[in-house]
Amino acid sequence: MSFFERDRGIRTPGQRKLYALYELAYTLIDVSAALLFLIGSIMFFDKSLENPAIWCFVIGSVFFAFKPILRIVRELHLASEGDYDDLARRFRG
Q1: Is 53 exposed, middle or buried (0-12, 13-18, 19+ CB in 10 A)?
Q2: Radius of gyration of the chain (CA)
Q3: Cβ 9 vs Cβ 18: under 8 Å
Q4: How far apart are the C-alpha atoms of 63 and 81, rounded to whole Å?
Q5: InterPro entries given for it (predicted)?
Q6: Coil, strand or helix: which one is 32?
Q7: 56 and which of 16, 21, 40, 44 could share a cystine (Cβ 3.0–4.6 Å)?
Q8: pLDDT level of residue 1 (50, 70, 90 thresholds)
Q9: Which residue from 62, 1, 71 is spatially nearest to 33, judged by alpha carbons?
C-alpha cells in the first residue's frame, strides 16, 4: 500500500484510531477555513469591517494551507508506526 491510499490507516486498531483523529483534525480545519471565508465575505458588506474581513481571509487561507501539511504529517506518522515495507518498496522503485 502506498502513501495517501484511503485504506492505509486501517491495518491495526491503533492505526485506525490515529487515522480517525487525523481525519477529524482535517475536517475541523476545513470547516474553520470555510467559516472564516464566509464570515469575511459577509463582513465585506460593511465598509467599517473591511480590515477584520481581510484578516478572516488571511487566517482562513492559513487553515487551507494546513490541510496538505496535515495529510503529509499523517502519512509520515503512519509510516513511523511500522509500515516500513510499503515505504521501502516505494524507494526501491
Answers
A1: buried
A2: 18
A3: yes
A4: 26
A5: YrhK_domain
A6: helix
A7: 40
A8: very low
A9: 62
CA distance 44 to 67: 26
Give 38-63 pLDDT, tens digit per residue. 999 999 999 999 999 999 999 999 99
**Contact present, 72 and 31 (Cβ < 8 Å):** no
The label of the residue with cell 484578516 reads: 55
pTM value? 0.69
Helices (H) and strands (E) in the chain, counts: 3, 0
Amino acid at 78: L
In the chain, % helix, strand, coil (3-state, to 5) comes to 85, 0, 15
